[in-house]
Amino acid sequence: MSSNLGTLFRVSTFGESHGVALGCIVDGCPAGIKLDKETIQNFLNRRRPGQNEFTTPRGELDTCEILSGTENSVTLGTPISIIVRNQDKKANDYQDINQVFRPGHADYTTFKKFGIMPSSGGGRASARETIGRVAAAAVAKSFVQSMLPYADVIGWVDRIYDIKANVNEELVTLKNVESSPIRCPDKLAEEKMKEKILAAKEAGDSLGGIVCCIAKNIPCGLGEPVFDKLEAELAKAMLSLPAVRCFEVGDGFASTFLKGSENNDPFQLDPTGNVVTESNKSGGIQGGISNGMPIMIRVGFKPVSTIYKEQNTVTKDLKATTFKTKSGRHDPCVLPRAVPLVEAMFWLVLADHLLRQISLNHNFLNEIRKYLYIYVNIPVAEI
Amino acid sequence: MSSNLGTLFRVSTFGESHGVALGCIVDGCPAGIKLDKETIQNFLNRRRPGQNEFTTPRGELDTCEILSGTENSVTLGTPISIIVRNQDKKANDYQDINQVFRPGHADYTTFKKFGIMPSSGGGRASARETIGRVAAAAVAKSFVQSMLPYADVIGWVDRIYDIKANVNEELVTLKNVESSPIRCPDKLAEEKMKEKILAAKEAGDSLGGIVCCIAKNIPCGLGEPVFDKLEAELAKAMLSLPAVRCFEVGDGFASTFLKGSENNDPFQLDPTGNVVTESNKSGGIQGGISNGMPIMIRVGFKPVSTIYKEQNTVTKDLKATTFKTKSGRHDPCVLPRAVPLVEAMFWLVLADHLLRQISLNHNFLNEIRKYLYIYVNIPVAEI
Amino acid sequence: MSSNLGTLFRVSTFGESHGVALGCIVDGCPAGIKLDKETIQNFLNRRRPGQNEFTTPRGELDTCEILSGTENSVTLGTPISIIVRNQDKKANDYQDINQVFRPGHADYTTFKKFGIMPSSGGGRASARETIGRVAAAAVAKSFVQSMLPYADVIGWVDRIYDIKANVNEELVTLKNVESSPIRCPDKLAEEKMKEKILAAKEAGDSLGGIVCCIAKNIPCGLGEPVFDKLEAELAKAMLSLPAVRCFEVGDGFASTFLKGSENNDPFQLDPTGNVVTESNKSGGIQGGISNGMPIMIRVGFKPVSTIYKEQNTVTKDLKATTFKTKSGRHDPCVLPRAVPLVEAMFWLVLADHLLRQISLNHNFLNEIRKYLYIYVNIPVAEI
Amino acid sequence: MSSNLGTLFRVSTFGESHGVALGCIVDGCPAGIKLDKETIQNFLNRRRPGQNEFTTPRGELDTCEILSGTENSVTLGTPISIIVRNQDKKANDYQDINQVFRPGHADYTTFKKFGIMPSSGGGRASARETIGRVAAAAVAKSFVQSMLPYADVIGWVDRIYDIKANVNEELVTLKNVESSPIRCPDKLAEEKMKEKILAAKEAGDSLGGIVCCIAKNIPCGLGEPVFDKLEAELAKAMLSLPAVRCFEVGDGFASTFLKGSENNDPFQLDPTGNVVTESNKSGGIQGGISNGMPIMIRVGFKPVSTIYKEQNTVTKDLKATTFKTKSGRHDPCVLPRAVPLVEAMFWLVLADHLLRQISLNHNFLNEIRKYLYIYVNIPVAEI
Questions:
Q1: What number is the ipTM of this complex?
Q2: Are A50 and A142 in contact (CB under 8 A)?
Q3: CA distance B172 to chain C (A)
């Protein structure tokens, strides 16, 4: 219950940060998809900490192992199980926390929910929990791109604290983003963000911000009309990430300041005769269903709870005390590492709704073919 | 698939705005809960249009009928089926739209998703679709309050267009909200909002805004640690409402501008020795699990798509055209009617996670009893 | 929870025998399927009691109403809601039972499970509960045959008490079955069965027996390899019917008396070059997956619990007593009416697994086309 | 989809017989349950082949590893992941089969379903697939017995081929069963069964039979009234095991030869004033809900498909051929090893429905306490 996502492309994750291993099972991925260990490892490497001075120095290698579901680097249609063993676990890591509820953390709520307190405080509430999600997302991306070779998901850091980037959403590429150590493709903003992060690190404090993410070349028809609207599923997926506090689709918050006449996206025909919208204020989704335009979301992360300052709190046996994190292995700002997490959740939602739409509308497979032809100008013969 | 919500308190809705009836089945509600038709009707009346000059003049009575699941106004533990017949359906209502994709509406995406175009354009994409949700929420509230008599959910209009209300979240009551025709308990702001709405109505345009909603006296422990975090489930529930574009929990967007040292909520002991937080920036949820403090969310609605102005669009047979809504039965601003919808979704999420927590932690029933004692100062003997 | 079936072709039923109405929501049925009220009514009429002297004289007309999900007798892809109002409810019907646990009935277990006792004793435990299933199955059949026009499901009474029919499984047709008032196409056995039923009726007693059911022209590939094997899903579906006590697939019980060399079905090529099996002891399923041969099951029903003889039992307030059914409106043998129920559950399982296979193997739609060509000898051009 | 079982006590399994590892995730198990590796290993050892001359000589040790969900041998309430690495994989094991569809096996259906043929032929269709189930069942048993310390599940071989055992269902113990190498507690029958098995082995043939299984001290209230009847869930669980062809609950098949007056179980009060039934023909379930009496099922296994005799079949490229298994590592009769599998599935169903009932009826936890008192005569103070 607690760790399942998806209806047809179904992901189950497991693992505590202080346990033996973390990982996932992906069930429902069709057979015949090319999938090797390197694809998954590349995904995991992007979320890995310790990559530069702006992230935590913890040196987990996070090497993955595929236990099932593939043969000769091709999926079998059976559950794909992937694990990553915990290697950099230090016995005393959690010693200072196991009697104190850390402010902003899930220690107290975990203890009250389960009636038991894991040695790491929050049990599954850990950044390492996302390893299973990212491994599963590598499978999701492989599957989606096998059907929609031009589909892509690109995220970037749009703001850290009060430093806002200026990014051209139509032109930004994964390469632009990855060339920046903090995953902000606006070089000017990037420099200021670095300064802010280092200052926060110096002060033992932490910073939040915004990740933008866009999905391109997604066909019309993904998402369900009522509870499982595409934006609702994306919202859940994103809010399920640690430290996320807000979500917008399309113009989101800004839309609430517009009039209907300003906010509606008029339909028109593009040169190939296909229906497109003049503007894209709706962010590529109408009535919960993708309309073929780029899908655009924004995800807000609070400053991480782990800081190196004295804070008031209480102990497990209900005595007032103060708490200050001792070990220095935590990110002052998770935004750079949050980018691949946002992308991962996006891929998982797309994979699931792609399968759902295929099961619901049996002409959709033909629609996809036509879509490829019209949008990406591939000759039909090559599809 | 398209119309189910919840894991244990499970709601299935059905019905098109142009069909025979709309409604829901609620499955998983325990037996022995007091539930009569009036409770459900009162909920439905709050979402009903045509209540004053600020909402659409459509006169649906929306009278509900309970078909199953209760006897002598008490639930049997079996599926509760509730229907509302469409009465104010006018044959020509949709005549002007059935060859044109209305901008901002789900006509185009519905047609592409299903390969068929309902006469009403968007099929399930209609404000009337929410009838099933609201009827189900009446059941959810009855159930939750049977276990947590002091639990309550209160929503209000926090902003319309650029008019922001000033509301004391701790003191606002349902009565305050309901005494306002636009459900804004700040009388000063309310007057300005009314002006804005009437001006938009005059201009044939529409306005969006923000609904705030708070849940009080909710015990610690609701929500799951990974994908089904309480805020993730709330985000999905809210984004599944028509016209919603953004969601925040706690300080949300504002949190992204704070430092960790400013944003963390320190724990302390209240006079009765219970763990509480000094501030409530996290909005009552930590690590996806409620912490016993008030749960606070904000939900942003775009201006509704139906406006009385000429707009560019295309026809079903792919010809450029213009479209202007003819009939005048649509709200210029849905915010007042959105308040009970936000509350409804909140109750549905709470009911489901209350059952989930009971199944997971078998001491939780005792915890609830203790909670009643500590928080609400009821002598144990009376519980 | 209690009343949902299916993963993609999803059925939710509701209704008590003593309540206002019974019915179902079918969610997940694709758009564009021809479906009118008559199709559903015809299905319901087959399960209706009071059709001849061998069934209960209760005269429910069981007239259905489609509330949503279709327009102009075509499905919209949205939830299809169907209801049947209870009309023949007599106020005193259940008066004699509401303080006594009837032997063999669900009165006691329902009371203990829910902590509440419905006036009808067993709540959902009633033959009328199957109305929702049968209505949903009419949708399922329409959907399956829209994709597999030659697919069919034919059930018949194979044995009543000790009278065994002799039926050629390959040749039996729905028409053969329906021409018999007790749905046994073996005229000789039928006569003896009639005698047995009338004798049991006379004696105030009841009889059980076996229903056989075969699904023809089902393509290879339905069913999942592990928990959701096709035979496992069929077993659950059948055992979920009231009074069912045993289930066999293929040669079933008889297989346990064979050696592997006798029981294996050798593969061979049929004249068109397609893979078939020489024998069909496995009943058309291997490893949980249909192999293209006829799927054959047998379902055993106990004699119904309602008899007109004095029996020992206890009252709700735990006093020993005796009980004898007073009103005479119950079937002495449900087997004839059980046939359409078995068929209904079969269609529901087939519809669900057809959608599941489509979502999993994207070449399956082409496979179906080829199947039609090979098996049924339709020229490809006409498919 | 293909490999998930359970609603609240949720099991996901993975792994191919020719892959790196097999295993499971158990999600939904409450925190605080004692669970160590030995408990799981003991369960796995019972299903392990190679234990004596009556089972396959394959020497897998099947050593398990717990990757997550426990700490200090106590469950955390988080997903419990357990893996078993494949060790005895021989490169050439499957060489002879990868171009031929073995009769009776899932090679052909797997190939048609997924469009791809794993090197082992049937992919997940392998006796080794049950490792994940059995590991999960060890968790299930630990959980169920933590709440119902006197609950137990005991299975035994009731028949092999034509040799029927005579076993007193009320007195048989796990110890009786385990003292027999073929898990038949009737010593006389056991000897004849051994002879039959060795003769079949000699002949290169295989034998089927029946496993009986009883669950004792299960409280009234488990199971749902409609689709998820306890016997329906058990039927699905059992039919999902490899080679199972039939299922009976209570008197099952024999019931269909009785009259209602013979088959109904009259209620009476036991000496402690509790409601019990005089007979138990219903097998402890009425209307889909357990009634507190022993739950009794019978599961029929076909003779395994792997035999050492020449059989007709076809190749993957559709040429007629013959096939004869070469390697000699297969059981001539799976019945002895099927016993722990039947028990495993029983525990999984019980654990799930125990959680479901707790979430549905909040007095049930008190009922259990009372049950312990009444049935097992434990003084209340000790509960």
A1: 0.95
A2: no
A3: 36
